[in-house]
Specification:
heterodimer; A: 413 residues; mainly alpha; two-stranded antiparallel ribbon; 17 helices; 2 strands; globular; B: 325 residues; two-stranded antiparallel sheet; 12 helices; 71% helix
Chain lengths: 413, 325
Amino acid sequence: MIRMDKWIDTFQKNRTSQFIVLGLFILVSSASVYFLERSVTAFLLLLGSLLLLHYTHLTNRTKWIVGLLLLVVIIPLATSGGTSQQDYMEVAVQTGIYVAMALGLNIVVGFAGLLDLGFVAFFAIGAYTYGIFASPQATQLFHSDFFPLAGTWFWPFILIGGFMAAIFGILLGIPVLRVKGDYLAIVTLGFGEIIRIVFNNMDKPVNITNGAQGLSQIQQPEIFGFTFSLASQFYYIVIVILLVIIIGVQRLEHSKLGRSWKAIREDEIAAQSMGIPLVKTKLWAFALGASFSGMMGVVFSAKNMFVDPSSFTLIESITILVMVILGGMGSIPGVILGAAVISVLNLQILTEVTNFLTQNISIPDTLSPTKMQRLIFGVILVLIAVYRPKGLITAKAKQYDPAKLAEQPISDK
Amino acid sequence: MSHIFTALPQVLVDGLTLGAIYAVVALGYTMVYGILELINFAHGEVFMTGAFIGTGLLLSLGMFGIDMPAWITLILILIMTALLTGLLGIGIERLAYRPLRKAPKLIPLISAIGISFILQDLVRFVAEMKTGNYIVTGTTLFEGKFTIPFSSIIGSFQNATIKTNTIILIGITIVIMILLDIFVNRTKWGTAMRAVAQDQETASLMSINVNKVISLTFFIGSAIGGATGFLFAQQYATIDPYIGFILGLKAFTAAVLGGIGNIRGAMFGGLMLGVLEVFAAANLSTLTGGVLGSEYKDVFAFAILILVLIFKPEGLFGKSVKEKV
């Protein structure tokens, strides 16, 4: 036993050995994804290597390089082996979209401590912003040959979609900020429903959103004559946006704004008396969080080439909230993990288990796990709230070394 | 525009019906909030479960061929439903709220959302197993219909029709509200409840068993909510597992409108919201010249909620509380 402990101890300190084990793990899992026909387990193991990477003691730089290599090269390559490449990539794209949204909600809920139950509204705003202008709907609306916009407009629209969502975030924020805590949750929930009902009914008197039928024939992104149409191509768009978002969020967390958010979360009155402008800080949280969601909304509508109000129901908002809570409010790696776990659970595991069950034992359709989504989410929420309110990966506050701080002369910076 | 005026009696009847339901459900929210300062998100689902339990009992009575006078059946089912949903309420509190009493405020809200999802899915599951469809249509106990001759009072009014079920619904909810008011204001347990709402620690020093009082509050709130669920199922015939959420939200709006924590306020807020909503559903398209139709009635209710929270967060009858450091 003692030797075992020693072994573990040296392993924890030895970066090279960790690197080798990680490399072997990645090799085995990617090879099995490549050679096995549609094996969800192998795919999960491959994704799990990202988690393993998080727990290694490698330097931050190595972690980033290995992570990028995994995302950009290894995962696309490994999945290209069988016939189900597009299925895997579809899951990966959806997961990426959810991770971005969860990171956005994490700013509002995790950093600033404002419970938002209507977050999917911003996703809807992003999706509709691109959807209206890049589909024949715009031609009807403006009677101009300029519309629908060509696929090259997709790129600026990522920013425009984010910007529109941010504006709505502020519009929601201004009246809502007088409301506190659990009231805020109810009001945002109401706001989410209002947006959905409005989109559902804006086909009259002027047909803007085409009502419940939704918008179809939305243009696919295009660059230098190349059209993005497959999931494996969208994958790269999502990865790029996601990287920008992750780096942005990490920089934000320890910035002055990020620290103000946390101060407000811990104690509003104390924060205010330290000179933090409450309204401005909270509005920034709403605007930035919403903008991530809006950007991914644009990607979502371009990928599906179709949007309708049924994609933006309350359960979607709650799904994103579950991701944040499961992962750990305020913890960036946690939220990424939570989002990945829940979306892979939703998109793959539940369907796979259902297929397995229906093939092997005949179960009634009502019992099928895909239909039990609400029950599963409910159980996760209750269990996490009662037993692990800080989530899977607890948020860590940045530690300052008092000795080091004492050495530095106090400057204005 | 004259149409709005002539149809007013019917709007009033329908509005009061809906309002009575909101009022009783709002009581559940307000009582719990008054004591724990917690929005019992799952309360709408308790109402929904009550609707299903009641309808299930009624259907199984029919299946066993038990034949009783309609009013005895009604009272029996109401009592059974109330007992069961009351116990459900106690269970929810034990499981999801009590362990979190000292946690930050966000956490119990999250477990409440969890509970409400669990209830929705369990009810869907049972309903689908039993009937093959999660939308259930029950039988009605009372079939009758009346016409109230409003036109004989004021000539330009149209007559309003009212179902026997509606009269029973309004009657029973009024009885519930009066009984609850007496209970809270006149009895020993009611006094204990108000004491706990004011100050838990001091109340416990006065030899009040705080946990028991909280359980009792959940029992009463859930029992009357569940019983109203059955009345709702009788009134509107069709129920599904997702009715509780929106209705709960509106009932909460009613509670806020009347000043949360204030029992009489919740009753008034419920009735007012019901009438306003039915009025909006009937007349929004006339009033806005066809721009907004009756599909915006939910938006209208939420808009009221948001406006009240912004301009008069203490509600119409509540006292405003300053936050202390």
